[in-house]
């Protein structure tokens, strides 16, 4: 829902406003207006993260997805009858979103997260359709054709993939309706497993790139951490002690999903997009429901020891002893923001001590954040933007390896070291250096 700027010039106007403030708040989510409801479902489903190109008209598509055999592009899903979906029936729309079937009957690539969207309820599907038909501006722009050479461009293997790996809508809907401890947790499970498609990034994938588990009912692989996306590792969202959310409270999770920051860490990479396009728009009730559901997911590595803060590294740095590998680099380049005790100045500069991102088995995120920097834009509920500088030109692969090894070892993090060869290998796929979302020349 759009917020209007009120300028109450008169006492009467102010009185009217006070009166309004006492009327029950109509949340878009529970609203009777199907366009507003559909808008909310589109936000909860993050449709714009993939279908809106930065700076381009909403939902006009054209975002490239690189697959091993070539690139595909997200579709124009505005109601333009020729280039978009304006001529589609509701049944055709629902079949594309929940089953991955295009209007001509061929299959969509699962870059479109239909295996999760199979869980979207009929009433939310209807609201989505109404929103895309009536609440979105038509844009007459053709979706670029996929640049995948024949015979790999044939879509029929995708329908085989779908038959094997994507859930039938009926069984997905039954799973959504399994028993939960209370209605809020049930709502959270629906949002996380369905529209939110958190598992598309946070669950591990098999050889055919299928998600190994699509819901909390499918075992502890669900949301146990995924493969790097654009160089950033989606961490475990389960109760894993060092690499997951075991030390995050319900409020920590809610703060992170609504603002991209909290006392534990800050979002970067694809998660920032998921927050900016998606979760920041959700009601506090829905965010709490999601957090409560996540807190029910037991650890995927129950044997991992708990993290405890170890003051030794901070004590060494504070008495001028920087002999540990990478310690000197840390003091010179990082401690101003992240502090010698590794606790940062949350939520402006995130703590590195006890941060699951730092202790991950895969060092990809760390190398890329140090190499290319990271920028967290403001959100509606937290307008200030924070930037971590890019060190790719300043530090050699050996130095990046050393400083990353230091933050992985210090403060009780105790994660294994990283060598220069690993850094050099990861640098080949480094994301562009960022400043406030815009690539900047490194210096
Ligand atoms: C993670 C990225 C991603 C998200 C999120 C996403 N899509 Fe897609 N979508 C795609 C891609 C990529 C394609 C094209 C796939 C292909 O060519 O096989 C696509 C295709 C489609 C199509 C088929 C259009 C056609 O012309 O065949 C529809 C309809 C669609 N998406 C609607 C939606 C809606 C509605 C949402 C939100 C509920 C959504 N998408 C969210 C990536 C995404
Ligand atoms: C496009 C991929 C993508 C999607 C979709 C996505 N995430 Fe993430 N998420 C990531 C990445 C990458 C990280 C690691 C970077 C960071 O910490 O911000 C992450 C980190 C997180 C973290 C912080 C973990 C930590 O230890 O710092 C939370 C919490 C989280 N995601 C929750 C969610 C939820 C809930 C959803 C679904 C609503 C979701 N994510 C959807 C990619 C994604
Ligand atoms: C000017 C302040 C500043 C300096 C100096 C700085 N950082 Fe950061 N760092 C940040 C900010 C701000 C973020 C959050 C960025 C985001 O989320 O997009 C961040 C994020 C990180 C993260 C990801 C953790 C998380 O939860 O988001 C790591 C790892 C990191 N920094 C390591 C380092 C290392 C190593 C150095 C030194 C080589 C360094 N930083 C220097 C400000 C700084």
Automatic annotation (TrEMBL):
Heme c 2 binds at residues 198, 201-202. It is found in: Cell membrane. Heme c 1 binds at residues 47, 50-51. Keywords: Cell membrane, Electron transport, Heme, Iron, Membrane, Metal-binding, Repeat, Respiratory chain, Signal, Transport. InterPro entries: Cyt_c-like_dom, Cyt_c-like_dom_sf, Cyt_C_IC, Cytochrome_c-type_DH, Membr-bd_ADH_cyt_c. The keyword Iron applies. PROSITE patterns: CYTC. It comes from Gluconacetobacter takamatsuzukensis. The keyword Electron transport applies. Residues 1-28 form the signal peptide. Residues 33-136, 183-298, 321-411 form the Cytochrome c domain. SUPFAM superfamilies: Cytochrome c. Heme c 3 binds at residues 334, 337-338. One of its GO terms (molecular function) is oxidoreductase activity, acting on CH-OH group of donors. This is Cytochrome c. Its cofactor is heme c. GO terms for cellular component: plasma membrane. Binds 3 heme c groups covalently per subunit. It comes from the Bacteria.
